[in-house]
Amino acid sequence: MFRYILRRLLQMVLAFFGTTLIVYALMFAGQGDPIQALAGERPVTAAQRAYLTEKYHLDATGVGGFFYRYFDYVKSLLQGDLGQSLTGRQIGDILQAAWPVTLKLALIALAVAIIFGVSAGVVAGIRRASIFDNSTLVLTLLVLGIPTIVLAPLAQYFLGVKWQLFPPTAGSQPTFYALLLPGIVLGSLSLATALRLTRTSVAENLRADYVRTARSKGLVKRRIVTVHVLRNSLIPVVTFLGVELGNLMSGAIITEGVFNIPGVGFNLFRGIRTEDGPLVVGIVSVLVVVYLVSNLVVDVLYAVLDPRIRYE
Amino acid sequence: MTVNPTPASATPEGGHLLELRDLHVEFRTNEGVARVINGVSYHLDAGETLAVLGESGSGKSVTAQAIMGILDTPPAFVRSGQILYRGQDLLTASEEQRRQVRGKEIAIIFQDALSALNPVFPVGWQIGETLRQRSGMSRGDARRRAVELMDLVKIPGAAKRIGDYPHQFSGGMRQRVMIAMALALDPKVLIADEPTTALDVTVQAQIMDLLADLRRDLDMAMILITHDLGVVAGVADRIAVMYAGRIVEHADVRSLYKAPAHPYTKGLLESIPRMDVRGQELSTIKGLPPNLMRIPSGCPFHPRCPYVQQVCVDVVPHDLVLGDGRTSACHFAQEVRDDSAR
């Protein structure tokens, strides 16, 4: 197990450099004049231009020059310096402000998925083909079918503006209450998937041979379901939720955009829109790490949950 | 010859330990109704071993699960009949009463121990669970008893292996774990549902010996369900042969092997390869087991039977009681037995 984790960490290093390189290349390949982009509409003096060219090694051209700048970037990145955005703010500071908001939103979404998705999935799995099962089936299909770009504004309009049950937008320092509606919207997708997955898993495990054995031991039905069936059924669900948390942590561009939540996705979207190369590359580099780590955690968790899984 | 079905051994005082009377079970599926058990009657007395023999789909396992009350309903429905345990009909008992019987009075071991054991719990925990849940034993006591039980079924280094998971055991050891679990509550009846089918031949013999020893030492009665005639000979007292959800022949082991009185049993015995007769083609029973959704008219075995006459197609044979207390559900039972005896 230890060797496995070590190997995975080494693979992560490779994956990290690969992805940052690609994102870095994509983000700066299309740019015409980075110094002008940095300055925006204002004119750039010759002295400033010379200083910035020197600072960012812009005089080196071609592929060689690109790698020169990339290694510059990685060097400061490894020293913990994500650099400055084009607006002049430290990217580290931006992320420090944005991440707690995204984390709160992610946890609300995950809680919604677990509380409603998993429990409804268990009930639907036990009462297969019942009215409850069929209605959850239709509802989850509906949720999975509607894209967030439609669902989020609808929820905002009806629940936020028309019936005024929730604040329609979050603002710069969002409270838990303000994040509740966006959290539910964001979580509804994970909820639907978690429900379907739990239902299938429970239904399948209820038919397993070990359930027959548990019945032949004279155990009460409640114990058979809550101990034997659930323990097995939740293995795929827990791993799904782990991966999902990793995804949610990287921010929800649409939901954060619609509800005006200053999270990671919101900043990333702003960076892309304003062609803020350093900001986009900075955020994506950190996201890559978050994603890789959460995936490793899920894989290790999987082995802990299922004793049959062995990593060598 | 009489046509009154009577048991092949005398009824002891106070009745049989376990008795099935005219059990009917059907599976209601989308494709139709499969009549899986069609009037099965057999009994078991304390301390004896009854072998239930038959090919796949003959209803052996379904009968066992009906006794345990662990059939999946739906699709399985017990249509009629009685399952008497110490005179009490389990089929009319409440679910709570039935649950009390499971494991404590009647226990069962299954064919494939790998899938029958829960993959995510250690074996010691699974054996101990029965004790904790049913006898209210403490965690520590249950653990100690689980080690004793694993010792009893001769698992080497039981104390060390108690925390291992089912997939870490070999097939034979896993089946021993299954047996240990079934013995946890000292059952009076042990149903072994094809206990050796998933195992290597050498391991099969060990498990059969173990079961025979345990049955004797713990003074249990055993129902041994198998499709393997070789397994039965050394262990069983009586044999009930099943075909298409019916008992077609019922006799003590010795006389059944000597002279089968049903063409199906005769066919089964003749299809065992013999070491002493060389150069002879192995005889088989022609045809296939019947589709349980369309069981043939009359005697269900008639399409495959070498003795078939018009009466077999028209009339369902009763259990004919032959001289020495055996029964055979064949119109020509006497002739078949006389043929076999030659």
UniProtKB/TrEMBL annotation, chain A:
Pfam families: BPD_transp_1. The chain crosses the membrane at residues 12-30, 105-126, 138-159, 179-197, 279-305. It comes from Micromonospora lupini str. Lupac 08. This is Oligopeptide transport system, inner membrane component. Residues 99-302 form the ABC transmembrane type-1 domain. It is a multi-pass membrane protein. Its main location: membrane. PANTHER family: DIPEPTIDE TRANSPORT SYSTEM PERMEASE PROTEIN DPPB-RELATED, DIPEPTIDE-TRANSPORT INTEGRAL MEMBRANE PROTEIN ABC TRANSPORTER DPPB-RELATED. The keyword Lipoprotein does not apply. Keywords: Cell membrane, Membrane, Transmembrane, Transmembrane helix, Transport.
Automatic annotation (TrEMBL), chain B:
Residues 18-269 form the ABC transporter domain. It comes from the Bacteria. It is a peripheral membrane protein. Pfam families: ABC_tran, oligo_HPY. Keywords: ATP-binding, Cell membrane, Membrane, Nucleotide-binding, Transport. The keyword Translocase does not apply. It is found in: Cell membrane. One of its GO terms (cellular component) is plasma membrane. GO terms for molecular function: ATP binding; ATP hydrolysis activity. GO terms for biological process: peptide transport. Belongs to the ABC transporter superfamily. This is Dipeptide transport ATP-binding protein DppD. It comes from Micromonospora lupini str. Lupac 08.
